[in-house]
Amino acid sequence: MNVLDIRRQTRWRPTWFVEAEKDGMRHDVVVRGDRVDTQAYPLQHEMAFHRILHDNGVKVPELYGYLPEIDALILELVPGRPDFGGVSEADRDVIVDEYLQELVKVHQLPIEPFTQAGIIRAAAGEDPALVHRSRMIKNWRAKKAAPDPFTEFCLGWMRRHPPRSDGREAPIICDTGQFHHDRGHLTAVLDLEFGHIGDPLIDLAVWRMRDTLIPFGDFATLYARYEELSGTIVDLEMIKRHTFASTLGNQLMFGPAVADPVSDTDLMNNMQWNSETNLHATETLAELLDIELPTVTAPEPRITRQDKTFAHLVESLKVDTDDYLLKHDLRLAFRMARHLQRAHEIGDQIIEDDLDDLHALLGRRPATFAEGDAALEEFVLADAADGRHDEALIKLFHRRNLRVHLQLGPAGSSMATHLPMRPFPAAVAAPSERNHP
Questions:
Q1: Among residues 142, 242, 157, which one has the least CA distance to residue 202?
Q2: What is the pLDDT of residues 264-315, one digit of tens each?
Q3: CA 78 – CA 29 distance, rounded (Å)
């Protein structure tokens, strides 16, 4: 095997594109390493799940092997793209329908080969709807080092209103909506790292968050098509609960990484993901409970002696280079500098606004943000059993989440722009309303 080129993918998970040649034939592969600062399942678990799907005819990249020296998988490099830029709506609908067919194929595979391979499954007495989330919560608690009242509130709400599988159990992808398509057709389902045995409705719920970035079509129609293909009923009420549970995924996984990053942590990316899906969480709860959410107004930037220094730092990071890895690192540093600049401009006033909110809730005003976080978490935990203050807390946390988002970058920047999920469908579309190939 003659290696022609190795190119690192500029992203948070170590991945390399390798161009190689053997006997005059090209063999381009992807070398996919493990996460650097978080983990849900071991890489060997991902590999086993991936191999079973491939062996059962699911359209996933071929798995060539494992490199123990660097703890990485070797996968087929499949052609295509993940989004629908420049793709007609009709072509998109064909591709999405093909993806739905693959999703149903996964959900209808027998469970036994997965359990024999050690794939995670609910223990006796545990609901398959909760096995993945329970694992994420356990990992989060092991790394939690400071008060996190928002996450504690969300977990308390979910304990009182858990999603239920109601007898559903199947192999599931869990991080749905990731695939490549080429020339009008699906080429492969991608990113199987969270695959396990659980409630298949999770796959239909998680997909809705990715739809904020890549529009996939009307979800009532997609759910109706899933019913046709699978012969099962889509329980929209459980979809709603699974959607809320899924909005917590980034905070549970990346919250500790943001609080205590390592050198390879893509900090600003993680901060933006957490902030975006934390807003999805409060928006989902508001939709479930029919609560009108508040808005916030960005404080006026303060004027300080460091303003020019911050501006100069941001400008100095706008460096053009042909080195794609250096360009990526500079882009990350640029985003971090703009975040710090924005926090310097409005962060102090945002802390004051948060403390004012706590004064109204607690009847006293904590002296610092750290004291406020601790007091709010204590209040949340005391209310967790019955949720008497749910509406007040949802509104308070939504304001706090909006203020966090305001500080990610300048007003109007992509980092500080929020993309809400589409509202839940009122019902699954009737057959006459369905639009599929």
A1: 242
A2: 889 999 999 999 999 999 999 999 999 999 999 999 999 999 999 999 999 9
A3: 8
